[in-house]
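Retro notes, structure queue

What went well: the backlog is down to a handful. What didn't: a couple of records were mislabeled last round, so from now on we paste the full input next to the output in the thread. Example, using DNA repair protein RadA from Methylopila turkensis:
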Amino acid sequence: MARLKPTFVCQACGAVTSRWAGKCEACGAWNAIVEEAVAAPLPGGASSTAARALGRGRVVVLEGLSGATDEAPRLVAGLGELDRVTGGGFVHGSALLLGGEPGIGKSTLLLQGSAALARAGHRVVYVSGEEAAAQVRLRAQRLGLADAPVALAAETNVEDILATLKDGPPPRLVIIDSIQTLWTSQVEAAPGTVTQVRAAAQAMIRYAKTTGACVILVGHVTKDGQIAGPRVVEHMVDAVLSFEGDSGRDFRILRAQKNRFGPTDEIGVFAMTGDGLEQVTNPSALFLGDREPDAPGAAVLAGLEGSRPILVEIQALVVPSTLGTPRRAVVGWDNARLAMVLAVLEARCGVRLGGHDVHLAVAGGLRIQEPAADLAVAAALVSSLTGAALPVDAVFFGEIGLTGAVRPVSHPGPRLREAARLGFKRGVLPAAAADAAQGTDVSIVAIPTLDVLVARLAARADAAHASRQGA
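Corresponding output:
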């Protein structure tokens, strides 16, 4: 096979250079550039045809923005949490990329979803490039899915996989586990390299678009949690799903980072059991299950993940520091966001935390990304500093500005209705959102600025201290 001039590709970001270098100029990674030779296109192939027709393009029909728009047909898996994240089911002809740490349960999730679809009468093909067919069968037997009519294969060559898929009835769902193990003979590079991953993903995506089958590609993740391989693969697929979780906990979270056919901020919650993954339909009760109501430094956040309101506990510990530079440790939240809240507390409210170590954690291992957690974090910090517990029946949400103002956040009504369903009686929220929260069974405590909340908590701490002195 004819070869072109060798190129050098960064295995971290996919940047292509004409010569080798120790450091990638695009992403700054060291020792990540590898020489790769790409095979020349075959004579008479698509590239030659396009070259001959250069300058003689066909006329494309232009359409307006108005007109009939049909909802994309979907393949409903039957797992409510999975269908929620995908936007109501898998879209025919779409390509999805599922990433997650090793052992988190990606294969278990896909095996359960494929078994549900196969039992519903759809043809499902599961191609494993990392495990033998016998290993997949053992997992299916352990999960009680051995009777599901899932077509199984253990193969890594892209051409062989495509030939197998075209031989027989067209499948509705194709699972490739994983994309990093595939290789194509059209590229002279080792499996797992950027060039091979890009070429294999492009071939599988082209198959999905031309046949109407839904293709799910499983991707490895790097040590910092990013999906390994070239970022161009994430741009090529229609949806990027991330399966997250802590090895020390039983629950798992499926999060949509990109979705062309649905929302990108939905999450699905699962619990890992001996019989596989079980759906958690009430995640708020899960995250608040081990709550200690009378502990100082704990505030309940009425958060929102996509269209689903979730209540989660924010825990803070503020202690005098013995170090020259106090520690700031955060688990489940943004470090920069915590630094901003601390600065506003000190500059606008007179709360001196410069000589204290601050530890902040989201109970249960959930990672919070929305700014509505600012008010709950500030309440937890002040509660830990004063030693007075927050009201056991109160939830908090609101964004804090640099001026100290508490700004409204989206959808206060669903947040408070979820809180009322779990037995909470009070909602501490921005004053500007008080009118929008009317009509719920929760009494509203409007907070216009952060110093008002600090004054209320300080008065509560003084009252608790006086009661202890009187006793």
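Agreed that this is the format going forward. Reviewer comment attached to the example: Residues 76-281 form a domain with the Rossmann fold fold (CATH 3.40.50.300).
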